[in-house]
Amino acid sequence: MDAGVEGLYSVGVAKYKSINEPNAAVETADQLKHKYTHLMGQESLSLGRIAGRPLEKENMKAKTYKTSCDLPPTVRESMIELLNQHLADTSDLYSQAKQAHWNVKGAQFYQLHELFDKLAAQVEEFADMIAERVTALGGSALGTVRMSASASRLPEYAIDGSGSMAPVQSLVKRFAQLAGSTRTAIDVSATAGDADTADLFTEVSRGLDKSLWFLEAHLQE
């Protein structure tokens, strides 16, 4: 690992650690690398995998294409991997919002039925933006249902929830999780020198936070 990538790696892992283990003692870059590569069962950990489990090995070998984009090839490769991870997470969130839309019950059925559909539509737009950024960088977007299911870091949606508020609570957790990992992706992209990908993630982050507000308002008194 060269010095530049090592530095980006250290920043990214430190950011991941600050979110997931805020009370943990400060560790060196080498200690962090050893710990997190061991936990995730990998010999190496690229920028695109610092915040969660990697895409399946066969998917990671998707074809790349020659491009006149002036970002360094190593940066483009890392960003493609990072974006594809978020494509999997975002596609999964879309399907879970639709699941809630189809199955919500209770006195607030119509209001929540409509809200969940609107939230799903916005998440679908985010997935499209992310996929198109992958291809703009010369990569292949990995967005089938099975690809997303195998790589998503979100927990599965429970099908036995009852009442109107159970799906709201489930979606709150998942929107919050994706919003948090998206903020990490902003920092990783900016540190890597890809301002455009960082800007894309910033837009997604704002949208997810707004959706989270709409959901949490139903639980607040």
CATH-defined superfamily: Ferritin, core subunit, four-helix bundle
**How many β-strands, per DSSP?**
0
**Biggest β-sheet description:** none
- Give the CATH class: Mainly Alpha
**What would you report as the Rg, rounded to the nearest angstrom?**
18 Å
Share of β-strand residues = under 5%
Q: Helicity level, as a percent range?
A: 55-70%
Average pLDDT works out at 82
The global form is: elongated
- N-end to C-end Cα span: 51 Å
Unreliable residue runs: 1-6, 32-54, 56-60
According to CATH, the fold-level topology is Ferritin
Reported CATH architecture: Up-down Bundle
Overall description:
The chain has helices spanning 3-20, 29-39, 57-60, 73-103, 109-136, 145-151, 165-192, 195-216. The model is unreliable at 1-6, 32-54 and 56-60 (pLDDT under 50). It has one domain (55-216): Ferritin (Up-down Bundle), CATH 1.20.1260.10. The protein has 8 helices and no strands. By secondary structure, the protein is mostly helical. Helices cover 67% and strands 0% of the residues. It starts with a helix and ends in a 5-residue tail after the last helix.
